[in-house]
Amino acid sequence: MLDRSVLLMDAKTEGSRSQTLSELARQLRIRQPENSLRSGGAHRRAAVLICIFQGDHGELRVILTHRSSTLSSHSGEVALPGGKMEAGDKDEVATALREAKEEIGLDPSLVDVVCVLEPFVMKNGMLVVPVLGLLYDKTAFHPTLNAAEVESIFDAPLEMFLKNENRKEVEKEWMGEKYLLHYFDYETNGAKYVIFALTAGILIKTASMVYQQSPAFAEMKPNFWNKLGNSSTL
Q: For residues 60 and 131, what is the distance between their CA atoms, to the nearest angstrom?
């Protein structure tokens, strides 16, 4: 999608960072998945925000959250900002932006939504829609965490989800078919995180699309993730 020489260029100035992200936005919009979110309308909906920005050394990074240990579901796990669609949400994009604002204080006006990835269907029938947006000015984002939902916020390099480093896998089986769940270990500012399951799967897919490169490991993706007629289990 985006030429690697552009992605890896030295981004010491705000202008060069904006140029790189603008080119990425242009190409992502061209490659917007053609599937319609109107299909599978019986599913309950949720959306997550894949918010990408450019780091000090020109690398693309993604914002992640560490969920509160007091939550009733997926407590203490690493996740992308997001949540269930509410009645007042116009669409999944609105859901992802609203949830990001509620969870980490990310102003929707700072995010340039460039495409929506194909949805993933979960065990409970929830359809999770990944919304990809770019944050051109990271300095304008001043995180405000909702302590009831988020314990901490951090960011990780997007390219790590294509590498075999600090990764392990667990084999699972569903309806007689085997698949792999990927676990990525990441440490930053003295804190250690594990990024796995659906969040890892979404980021592997995103990195593959952005860098136009297959991961350095076998994916063995669950065959149910993008089948709107099926339910799934993780």
A: 16
The β-bridge partners of 52 are 62, 134
Walk me through the domains of the chain, giving residue ranges and CATH numbers: 4-33+43-211 (3.90.79.10)
Report how far apart, in Å, the C-alpha atoms of 89 and of each of 33, 46, 82, 150 are. Answer: 21, 11, 13, 22
Cβ atoms of 122 and 165 within 8 Å: the answer is no
73 is written with which tokens? 């579901």
Which segment of 3-7, 64-68, 91-95, 175-179 scores lowest on mean pLDDT?
3-7
Model pTM?
0.87
Backbone angles phi, psi at 197, to 5 degrees: 55, -130
151-169 burial string, b = 16+ CB within 10 Å, else e? bbbbbbbbbbbbeeeebeb
Over residues 158-202, the pLDDT tens digits come to 999 999 999 999 999 877 888 899 999 999 999 999 999 999 999
